[in-house]
Amino acid sequence: MSVALRWGAPVAVVVACVAYLIYTASGGSAEYYLTVSELHAHQPGGDVRVAGVVQDDVVRTDGGLHVMFTEKDGTAAMPVEYTGTLPDIFRPGITVVAEGRMGADGVFHARTLLAKCPSRFATQPYTS
Amino acid sequence: MPVALRDPALHLLILGYLGAGALLAALVLAGFSALLSFWAGWRESDLFVQVGRRAFYAATAMTVLAAIALETALLTHDFSLAYVAEHTDISTPVALVAAGFYSGQEGSLLYWTLILGLLGSASLVASGALGGRVAAYAAGILAAIITFFLFVLAVVASPFELLSVTPPDGLGLNPVLRDGGMLIHPPVVLAGFAAFAVPFAFASAALLAGRSDAAWIRHTRRFALVAWGLQSAGLLLGMWWAYHVLGWGGYWGWDPVENVALMPWLATTAYLHSSQVQERRGRLRGWNLGLVMLAFLLVVFGTFIVRSGVVPSVHTFAISAIGPWFLGFLGACIAFSAVLLATRAALGSAPATRPAEPVSREGAFVLQNMLLIGVIAVVFWGTLLPLVSGMFGLERVVGAPYYERAAGPLLAALLALLAVGPLLPWRQAGRPSLRALRWPALTAIAVLLALAVAGVRSAPLLLALPLAAAAAATVFTEYGRALRRSPASVIARRRRFGAYMAHLGLAVVAAGIAASQLGQQERDVALAPGEQAMVAGYTLIYTGSEQRDAGDHTELVASIRFGDQTLEPSRAVYAGLGGQALTHVAITTTPVADVYVVLAGMDEDGRAAFRVFVNPLVTWIWAGGAVLILGVLLGNVGAMDAELARRRAAATLPA
After folding, report:
1. Which chain B residues are Cβ-neighbours of A10 within 8 angstroms?
2. Nearest to B120 by CA among B154, B160, B147, B98
3. Which end of chain B is least crowded, N or C, by CB within 10 Å?
4. Which CATH code of 3.90.79.10, 3.40.50.720, 2.40.50.140, 2.40.50.100 fits the domain covering A31-116?
5. Model-level pTM?
6. What is the pLDDT of residue A121?
7. pLDDT tens-digit map of A71-115
C-alpha cells in the first residue's frame, strides 16, 4: 500500500463517519421551530417548539409545579399546559418557547418551557 | 464612595467626551499603524516597521484610557452615559458595578479590544527576531483587526453614548447575573477569544512574507496556550455558573451561545497538537495554518451569531446594529484567509525524510484533529440548522439528543485516543509501544468490571468511564516512567508534563460529564410540611418554610432535612425589577453524586413543590478543570524556548 493510501483511507473513513453521524442525528431529532400562527397553519406531526407571548391568564396549581396559560403571537393563540419548574423570569408578557406537541384536546402539552430573555444582560434599554 | 464626582456637568465633560475622544484617537492610530505596517512589510522598511508598531502601542494606550473612563463612569454612577444607566443602578454591589464594564454589548466589545491591544502589543515586542517582514505584516494584521473593533466602538456601538436627560438611577443588573460567576466567566471567555488573534496574525504574516518555517509557531506558542487556557477556564466557569445559578439541574444546554464558545476551543485544541508535528517533524504546515485561521474565524463567527440574533437562542444580546458589520468583517476574514491559503500554502517543499506510518504519534495527532474537526462540524451544523432550514421553509432546530447522538461517538473516540496517543512514538509504533499500552488497558478492564459489579448497565457509561480511566492511567504511566528515570526531568520537561497533567484533568472532566449526563435522575415532588420523598435512594424531609426580607428582595426559604444537613432552596423576588423571581438552588455533594434541590413553588396552605435532581460525579468536572488549568500553568511557568532563553541571556550580558 502506498503512503497516500495508508493515510488517505483512515482519513476518508473518519470523514464518512462524521457525515453519517450528522446526517442520521439531525434527521432523527430536528424539530420545527414555529410561531403560534405557523403551528395552526401547518400542523406538523411530532414534537415542535412554539414561540409566543405569555398572556395574563396564568393558572398555577400543585404548588406551582403545574401551569396553564395562553401563548399568543400577533394573530393566533393557543392554550399551553406544562408540569415542572418554571423559568425564573416567567410571567405574563414575556416570550417563551414551549417544546412539546398539540394534543387532540386542542391544548399544547409542553415538555419543556424556555424563557427568552429580551436581552442577555440589560433589562430594558432606555430610549434616549 | 460613589459620590466623589457627582456633578453631572463635570461628568459629561470628563468621562463621556474623554472616552469617546480616546476611542477616536485609538481608531486613527490603529488605522495608521495598519497602513504603515503593511507598507513597511511591502517595502522592507525597518523604520516604518518601528513606527507602525509604536502606533499600535499608542492605539492600545488610548484604548486603555477609554476603558479607564468607562470604569470610572460606572464606579461613580455617571448615569449621563446610557451604558451606565442601562447596566447598573445605585443599589448594585460595587464588584458587580465594576463588572458592568463587560456585562453589556458595547462594554464587552471595549473589553475585547482592550485585551486584543494588550496581548497584541506583548506579541509585537519581541517580534523583530522573526524577521522584519513577518513582524511588519503581523503588526499590520493585528492593527487591522483592532481597527475594525475600534471602528465599531467609535461609530456603531459606542459605550460613551450620552443620554439627553440624566436619570436619577439606572436600570440595574438582571438578578440572574448578580453572582460571583458573572464576575469572572465573561472576561475569561472574551480574553480567550481575543488572545487567539495573535497566532492568527503571525501565521498569516509568515505566509504573506513567504516564510515556510515554524518560527511563528514558537513565537506565538505562549499566546495560543494562553488563549486555550482562558477558553478552557471560561467554558468551565460558564458551566459552573449555569449549574449553580440557573437551577435547571444541568450545566450545558447546547444553546448557540454555548456552541459558539465551544467551537473555537475545539479548533484551538486541535491546533495545539498538530502544531507539534510541524515543530518536531516539519510537516502539516498548510494544515496548521488552516487550523489557526479556522479558530480565529470561528471566534468572529461566534461573535456575529451571539450579537446579531440570527439564530434562536435563550440568551442573546439586545438587538443592535453591529450584526451586519460583524458579518462584513467575517466575510473579509474568510476571503483573506482563503486567498492566503490558496496562493501561499504550497510554499517550500515537504521535508525529504520518509513520511511517518499512520500508527504513530503523527497519526494520533492527525486522527485527533480529524475527530475534533468532526465535533466542530456537528456543532456548527446544529447551530446553523435553524438559519439554513429557515431559508428553505419552516425553521427547524435540534436539541441535546442531536448533539449526543452525533458528537457522542466522536467524543468517545477522542477519549480512547487520549489514552493511546501519548504512548505512541513518533514515526512508527512497534511492539515496545504496544507493551506500554498494557497499564491503560488493564485499568480500563478493571474499571469496566467494577462498574458491572456495581450494577451500572448503561452501555455508553460502560464505555466512557473505562476509557477515561485508561487516559488517566496513561498519564500516570508517563509520570511513573519519568520519575523512575530522573525526577528532575519532570521539571526540566515541564512543557510536556504540564500537558500530561492537563490530559489527566480532561480525563477527570470527561468522567464527570459522562456520569452526570448519562446517569442524571430527576423527580418532581409536592410535599406538605413533615412529608418526605425518596429520590434515587436519598431521603429528603420537608420541614417547613419561612419568608425572609433582604433589602432589595424578599426570599421564600424552604427547609429540607437531608441526613444531618439542612438544605435551604429558596426563591427570591426582586420588587425593584418588576417582581422578577430568582431561584436559589440548594446543592449538597455526596461522594458519588450531587443532590440538587430546586424550590418550584408553594401553595397557600404551605405545600411546596420541588424538583430534585441527582447528578452523579458533577464535582469531578470542576476538580478536573482545576487540574487542567494547573497543568497549563505549571507547564509554562518560567519555561522558555531554548532559542528565547539564549537571546535573553545574550541581552543581559554586560556589554
Report:
1. 358, 363, 367
2. B147
3. C
4. 2.40.50.140
5. 0.88
6. 39
7. 888 788 889 999 877 777 777 888 888 888 888 888 888 888 887
